[in-house]
Each structure stands twice: as C-alpha cells, then as structure tokens.
Structure to design on (261 residues):
C-alpha cells in the first residue's frame, strides 16, 4: 500500500486509499469494485479524488481572488470619491470621523457603499464554499454516480436500518433519523470527500420534501431517492449570484459619484 501512495501528501488521498481497501474487503457483492483490484485501478481512484480535492480548492480560491480584488479596488476608489466630493470640509479627520462625515453628507450612497464593503468578506466565504461544493458534486455524479455514490448511500442506509428500523410520521421523527444517518455517514470508512458530499446533501433535505403519502412507505427507499434528487439539485454550479454582488459593489461607486445624498 505504501508503494501505491508514495509521494502523495494530501490527507484526502490517505483516506481515499483506506476507503478503497476497506471497500474491496467488505463489499464483495458490489460489482463496480471487485476483489484483486489491480494496483493501476487503485492508483486511478487516488488520482481521481486528488483531482476532486484540487477542483474544490481551485474553485474556492477563484471566488476568493475575485471577491478580494473587487472589494479592495472599490474600497480605495470609494474613499477617493468621497474624499474628493467632500473636499476641505473633512479637514484632517481620522477614520471614524471620516466615516461619520461621509455617511452624514451622503447617507444613501455612502450607506450602500459601506454596507456592501462590510458584508463582502462574509458573502465571499459563504458563496465560495457553496460554489466549490457544487463543482465537486457535479463532477462526482457525472463520473461515479453508480459506482461510488449510490452504493455508498445504499450501504449506510442499510446499516442504519438494520440497527433500528425507522418509522417517519412527523418532522421530529425525521430530525432524529437524519442525525442517525449523518453519524453513520461520518463514521463510515468511505473517502472523506464522498462522506462530506453526501452529508452535505442530507443536511439540506427538509421533512416536507419527503414523499411519505403511501401507507407502507419505506423510509430507506424514500431517503435514498430524496438524497439523489438533492445531489442532482446541488450539482449545478453557478456563480451568477456572486457576480451580481460584485456588480453591485461597482454600481455603488457610480452612486457615490453622481448622487448628492
């Protein structure tokens, strides 16, 4: 095994190798992954999860870079516009005095400008993680939906059902069942990326999204279908909302320049 992972320093790759070896030993009935798996196939899986990790990191850094660049540039230009428009009335005021003076002179445009600057870091971090997860989910479903994702979901749901069959009638029942499933997903020997992706999707499922209308509804089958539907829903990476926010930052500069209030 050391020769299979030599030179790979990522923690994701370490857990990926453990998952594959455990999967071969414990899940003989699943056809896509067989015993006596060639080392070349194991290496391929390791490289694949390495690419998923790289895709996640690249997507996060991409959003961070754009967000930081836009925020810094608009902040500098905004302060310059405010200082130029107020002129000598500012005197040699400090930061707090400058803030109060600009908001007093231009309550609408300066207020919008400062608000967008303040929330920019929080919005960027939140959106970057969400966008990167969508990218990873999309790639994982496209490449290994039937060979990794579905077998993993079926296996964990089966384990949870064997321990204690679940009857779901209310939102409270579902909340308890969700916690149990999340713990099973997190404690499984699956690759860390797959566990995080499936747990992320499960956490997004709401009680009213489940089809429990049938009298003899099988919760295991219902939650499996709901999980796959939620994964498909989340596997649509779009940065449109983020770019709208970036656009608003630049629009705030136009308002600072032209508005008197």
């Amino acid at each position: 095994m050391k020769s299979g992972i030599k030179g790979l320093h990522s923690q994701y790759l370490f857990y990926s190798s453990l998952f594959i070896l455990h999967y071969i030993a414990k899940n003989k009935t699943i056809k896509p992954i067989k015993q006596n798996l060639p080392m070349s196939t194991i290496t391929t899986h390791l490289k694949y999860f390495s690419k998923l990790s790289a895709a996640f990191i690249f997507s996060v850094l991409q959003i961070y870079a754009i967000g930081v660049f836009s925020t810094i540039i608009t902040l500098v230009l905004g302060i310059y516009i405010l200082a130029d428009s107020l002129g000598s009335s500012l005197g040699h005021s400090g930061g707090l005095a400058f803030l109060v003076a600009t908001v007093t002179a231009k309550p609408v445009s300066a207020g919008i400008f400062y608000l967008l600057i303040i929330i920019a870091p929080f919005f960027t971090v939140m959106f970057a993680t969400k966008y990167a997860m969508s990218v990873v989910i999309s790639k994982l479903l496209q490449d290994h939906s039937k060979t990794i994702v579905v077998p993993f979901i079926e296996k964990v749901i089966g384990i949870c059902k064997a321990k204690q069959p679940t009857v779901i009638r209310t939102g409270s029942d579902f909340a308890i069942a969700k916690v149990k499933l999340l713990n099973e997903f997190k404690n499984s020997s699956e690759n860390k990326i797959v566990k995080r992706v499936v747990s992320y999707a499960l956490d997004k499922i709401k009680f009213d999204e489940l089809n429990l209308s049938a009298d003899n509804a099988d919760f295991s089958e219902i939650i499996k279908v709901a999980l796959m539907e939620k994964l498909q829903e989340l596997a649509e990476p779009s940065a449109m909302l983020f770019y709208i926010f970036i656009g608003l930052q630049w629009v705030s500069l136009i308002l600072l320049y032209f508005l008197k209030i």
